[in-house]
Amino acid sequence: MTKRFFVLFFLSVISAAGLGAQNLTVREIMAEPSIAGMRVEGEKLSPDGSKAIYLWNAEGKIPRDLYLVSTSGGTPQKILSISDLPVPSRTPEKENKLDYGLDLRDQFVKDRENQLGNFEWSPDSKRLVFSYGGDLYVYTLGAGKPMRLTQTQAAEIGLRFLDNDRILYSQNGNLFVWNLTNNLITQISKEADPQKFISVTNATPNKSGSLVAYVVSDNSKQRALVVPNYLDEFVQASNVRRGWSDQKVLVTVADGSRDTPFEVKLPKPEGVSNIRSLAWTAGGRSLVIDRVDKDTKRRQLFYIRNVGAKDEQLILVTEETDDKWQAPLSAIVEPNPKDDSELFFASERDGYNHLYLAKLEAGTRAVASVPAGGEQVATSSNPTYLTGKVNITQLTKGNWQVEWAKWLPDTDLIVYCSTEKSPSGRTFRGVSTTGHLADFGSIWSLRWPVAAPMIENPQLSMGIDSKIPVLVYSASRWNQPSDLYSFPLCVGCAETEPRTPTQLTHTATANISRRWTAEPKFINIRSSDGKQIKSKIYLPTGFDKSKRYPMVVFVHGAGYLQNTINGWNNYYREFMFNELLTQKGYVVLDIDYRGSSGYGREWRTDVYDFLGGKDYDDELDALDFMIKNYAVDAKRVGVYGGSYGGFMAEMLAFRAPEKIAAAAALRPVADWKNYYASSPAYTAQRLGFPDKNPDAYKRSSPITYADGLKTHLLILHGMSDTNVHVQDSVQLVEKLIRLGKTQYFETMFYPSENHGFERPESWTDEYERILAFFEKNLKN
């Protein structure tokens, strides 16, 4: 019988049309609670697919409560709040009679201390384990209050069930197993040593919970990144260590019966390397290890059959080298849950991230005897061995990329989420191990939305106890904040009636879409080297091409991020600010410049060796296009952005002052050698190493071009930034002072803020300054 796989997506959207739109203010945009409502966080689908949990607050305030919802729909129920738990102990604060100054622990700080988190389901979907206030709790659904297991305030992390009665967790760096039936605690790793900067991470148990693989990292070569805190009576400094590590993979038994773990003997890496993932095969005896080395350029996928046994085999499944750097999305790897000799992985080897099936060839031979007292972790009773030959088949293909994939239980299908329909949205589809796409026939083609929404954080249940696997995901559109949806993935079900996803949460505030009057227009802009720049523009109400308008260009951060999407993303504040700008008569431009995600390898790696090269050219090409086609006044163009966007704002201000009248740079990278110290992997991927490629660092750093500043520049930076350290802006300010550029720049520093601001007062101050800056320099 022919199997059919149905995935159908339909997202109802509140219409953006209609009367009643109101002008926004910065304070309204940045307020807490948000005018758009609070989004859910930490969503977890139960293994049986019947229910999901998430963190949310009905009043839109921190701290969040825990909610439970059936994946078949219905009203979500609040099942846990911090008021249900013991108050975490704190060191008593000394009385301060000089309390007229700054309140370090105001209500904002208190609300964010000791939040619920790290929830994980038990395999039978009846229990939850989580952490709160540094302690470990177990919550049995429908059984009253949670049970507190520890009282150490030692920040238990990495929680997960090994089975329904055993919990794996990390405390003080090492791994422990808590047996709920007898309250016995067993330490299973001993390698972690904070004094020597040795850490244990990536704890990965097999399905039965009998073996645990983990990564031991020697971080002693890392350097301390000192981040001063100026808010207390005396200046304090936290040391955040950053840099490269030497890593190895160890495997041990979860019952603690083995004194020393077994080390997986991988080939020695070349250059800097890191273990990206560990995954056990279906039988729970073989391990798949994904490693990147050769200074981020080579990816090797290893299969270790029968880890720790006398007949252990190490097989190289695939190896590929990218002369730029390995694609982040290629980290998608999953063994077949039914077949030990099969797995899929992702690769950009044909230019786009696609799925590949690896089939390991099997043979037979006699089983070697295992002597008593042998050093193996486990013994093998399976006469099958692997010849070392691997057959690889490409499963998906096209000028689009796969961004998530999972095996569909009890089938030969892989369900994946991709940009196949449009890079501005995401859709689900399926492919069989034979390479046959689960196209879903006429139902799929007819009911696939014309404008696909943005889909994020997909999760797929295991389909246990003969239940149909369930897909849960977050979906949104440009004017509609994200909510949770579910959809049963039924193979072979009848096509008698249409099926649509079930909306599980309704978190957007009433009539929120009516606040947006400027629907973004999605366009392609041709670059000077002949490529298409995916862009969106916002036009003022009553836009008239016979007039001339000021324009603001928003530059998204991260470099490798996508913002030209039909969705609600992390830049929702900037989206609302862009709406505010259009209400004040500005045209707004937002592009996915070179290096952005969502468009394949060539677009991703075109920034290699020169940040501020082709991505900078894309900004100028888009700017010229807007001047020519959308009535933009060439003398009244502004730009703003944070992080990488702040870096680009400075590059434009320094290198193209004749085109930019005002640039606001938020938490900007001014010198890439500083960012190498903070985030060496990100920087080395794009620019190599400072000592080996100094010219790339020099031409890519805005501080190199500081003497070119002849326009208005506003620099804003959090002083507690552990990502782009405030030293970047401090050093740039000092250079601008020495260059006599005082008339051109102004600064604002935020003492309590890290890279991502948290306080609504800080957000408000920052964007009111930016708005006033644009109004002063682009309106006159």
Brief write-up:
The strands form 10 sheets. An 8-stranded mixed beta sheet has the order 35-36-38-37-39-40-41-42, with helices on both faces. With 780 residues, it is α+β, with helices and mostly antiparallel strands.
Outline the biggest β-sheet: 8 strands, mixed
Report the CATH C-level class of the domain at 516-778. Alpha Beta
Mean pLDDT: 90
Would you identify the CATH H-level superfamily of the domain at 516-778?
Alpha/Beta hydrolase fold, catalytic domain
* CATH third-tier fold name of the domain at 516-778: Rossmann fold
Proportion of residues in extended strands: 25-35%
Number of helices: 12
Task: Tell me the distance between the termini.
Answer: 72 Å
Low-pLDDT residue spans = 1-20, 367-375, 439-450
Question: What general outline do the C-alpha atoms trace?
Answer: globular
The portion of residues assigned to helices is 10-25%
Strand arrangement across the biggest beta sheet: 35-36-38-37-39-40-41-42
Kindly describe this structure.
By secondary structure, this protein is α+β, with helices and mostly antiparallel strands. Among the domains are: 266-366 and 379-400; 516-778, Rossmann fold. The protein has an 8-stranded mixed sheet with strand order 35-36-38-37-39-40-41-42, with helices on both faces. Helix 4 links the parallel strand 37 and strand 38. The model is unreliable at 1-20, 367-375 and 439-450 (pLDDT under 50).
Write the layout of secondary structure elements.
Layout: H1 26-30, E1 41-45, E2 51-56, E3 65-70, E4 77-80, H2 107-112, E5 117-121, E6 127-132, E7 135-140, E8 147-148, E9 157-161, E10 166-171, E11 174-179, E12 184-187, E13 198-205, E14 211-218, E15 223-229, E16 236-242, E17 246-253, E18 262-263, E19 274-280, E20 287-293, E21 298-305, E22 313-321, E23 333-335, E24 342-347, E25 354-364, E26 384-394, E27 402-407, E28 413-418, E29 427-432, E30 437-438, H3 441-447, E31 454-460, E32 470-477, E33 480-488, E34 502-503, E35 521-526, E36 532-538, E37 549-555, H4 572-583, E38 587-591, H5 601-605, H6 614-629, E39 632-642, H7 644-655, E40 662-666, H8 672-678, H9 680-687, H10 694-700, E41 712-718, H11 727-738, E42 745-750, H12 760-778
Parallel strand pairs: 37-38, 37-39, 39-40, 40-41, 41-42
Antiparallel strand pairs: 1-2, 2-3, 3-4, 5-6, 6-7, 7-8, 9-10, 10-11, 11-12, 13-14, 14-17, 15-16, 17-18, 19-20, 20-21, 21-22, 23-24, 24-25, 25-26, 27-28, 28-29, 29-30, 31-32, 32-33, 33-34, 35-36, 36-38
